[in-house]
Amino acid sequence: MTRDATPETFSESSKQRKLDVPAADAGLRLDQFLARACADLSRSRLKALILDGHVTLDGATLRDPAVKLKESQRVALVVPPASDPVPQGQAMDLVVVYEDADVIVIDKPAGLVVHPAAGNADRTLVNALIAHCGLSLSGIGGVRRPGIVHRLDKDTSGLLIAAKNDAAHAGLAVQFADHSIKRVYRAIVWGMPTPPEGEIAGAIGRSTRNRKKMAVVGEGRGKSALTRFRTVRRFGRTAALIECRLETGRTHQIRVHLSHIGHPVVGDTVYGRAHRPKPPMERQALHAGVLGFSHPITKKWLEFESEPPYDFNRLAAWFEAGQKPISES
Questions:
Q1: CA gap 54, 32 in Å, rounded
Q2: Among residues 31, 102, 107, 153, which one is catalytic?
Q3: Average per-residue pLDDT in the chain?
Q4: Residue 122 annotated to the active site
């Protein structure tokens, strides 16, 4: 379908798009028409622009997204510049695995919080991405910030993707919603899972005993969750290295599911258990090792792999040595 839709400069900092309604689009709602014509802007962003008075119909400002359009009417949309980000950018060392105009893939170290929150107001991955990406962030919802479509816990290491514009953010969000993103984790767990591979299905919601924790809950009380696992290596009957594939992405899903079947992640102080001698690792032994997705703009399949960091491998060696002190050489 063709359109007379040529974006043009409106001012030094804003852009105006003038769109004539073709016969094929007569009868469409204003928000539906704009969603078709402006694929680089999310539906929520377009709705906000309409409500904020940035759209005119035949020269008259229109704030109703549901107005039905007629053939040959002229729709003009002014897209203001993206506002400065909140929080502010902070330069930090990042391991960038992949980056283009639309997305960035980071190998996150353990100990780095993804998003500012109570207790972690700054020095987060979002702060670092704002500083690293700079003006290449065209604005998520009108704000020059990265689009975080999934998170890793503070003490989980590994691969994470962020969007740099609205269109990429929307495309990735669809893939996470339909579970087409490939995510493979490595974990070292207590005990020896029997059988050595299988599925863990159980809805996840807030624990009734501790509202700060998640738990496997009854039907209707949480969100459905499915984790597939297989044993990669056994350390006697004490522990095992396993691979987990997420079919859903609930808060703390792997940690909650593995604890639920009696094999908590080693070092997990929330869902795990204390052990003597204490393992030589100051966090949960969980690493996001594989991330695969269809590029939200080009549609090309991209897949990346990250090797577990030093502390993870050191823990595996400790178990291999029968939980005895291991040489640092």
A1: 16
A2: 153
A3: 88
A4: no
